[in-house]
Design a protein that fits this description.
Blueprint: H1 2-23, H2 27-43, H3 48-55, H4 59-71, E1 75-78, E2 82-85, H5 87-109, H6 114-124, H7 130-145, H8 147-153
Antiparallel strand pairs: 1-2
Amino acid sequence: MAEINRLDALRSAHVEDVERRSVRHSVRVEDYLEVLHELELVEGQAKPARIAEMLAVSRPSVTKMLKRLDEDGLVEYVRYQGASLTNQGRNNAISLRERHGLIVRFLRILGVDEKTAHADTEGVEHHLAESTLSALREFVEKAESDPNWWDSRLK
């Protein structure tokens, strides 16, 4: 019986993920938006070579994705010069940045070290439902505003 429930849960999770994906961008697109945004914030621009370096992909892969993002209205891409986020792309990237930060804060509350928290967040941040993020946000805000509350739960 447990195996059947587990199979149902696996199927349900994949169906829900497909439904969420129809509303949101693919994991890869989200990764590009995050990197573009960070490069714009830190370096003032997002050049293809730096994007390739940050995502550990080839330059031709970056060029192909930047063209796609340009077609989707998420970036303005100029060959040999790089790309800049459009308002829509920037809004998506800011949302992703906030999502990432929330999950890292949650993991840090649990005692996970900073480096591991960021690495683990990259693995899960694209797959959480908005309702899960809302619950995490509520938890994190409570734990951060009242550290004794969380400490008392551990006893």
